[in-house]
Amino acid sequence: MRRLLTVIGMLCVGMFAVNSTTVNAMERYVAGVHYKIVAPEPSKTKTPHVLSFFSYACPHCNHLEPAVDKWRKKQPNNVGFERVPAQWNPLFNDMARFYYALNELQLADQYSQVVFDAIHKKKRSLHTEGSILAFIQTLGLDKAEFQKVLNSDAMKKKMRKGKGVMTQYKIPGVPSFVVNGRYFVNVSMAGSPERLFEVLDFLLTK
Predict the structure, then answer these.
(1) Enclosing H/E stretch for 83
(2) Is residue 17 part of a domain?
(3) Is 31 part of any domain?
(4) Which of 106, 115, 188, 203 has the smallest C-beta neighbourhood within 10 Å, fewest atoms?
(5) How far apart are CA 179 and CA 206, in angstroms?
């Protein structure tokens, strides 16, 4: 009987080892290596979602933007996607206000690439409210309306909320992403821009 129990115990250990190996093999991307956990529990939101931390002023964000846009358009309708502009210094703060104003007017998707190109390809300086307002006029947008949005109480609220989200997830740099309110990943952790989107897809299923 004792020998039988020993054999059964060894079989159980063996099965556990096989199962553990199988699970590890299935986990192609590993926490602490390809991404990190930044919250103890998954988000309570009803749908999967991605927070994209970026800045118009960031050259790395500019380089990644076409791929982000392409990946985003491939996602099913139930996957939420929200941009959070970084706020670390006066330049990034102005770029954050610029993004939030475009987004408030439902123009961010239409003009974000235009803004990136103006800053990084055409070397246009957009580091003050005046330069931003002059630029949006070249796009045929209403200067007075845009200025009103830039200086509204709603804008101040969005800026505070955005900065709070950055603090909450301790965002060290951009571009970076938080998936389902729990998993942080950037290009460096993923290993390459191409693998970044594979990791994002993987995390959306967790």
Answers:
(1) strand 80-85
(2) no
(3) no
(4) 106
(5) 9
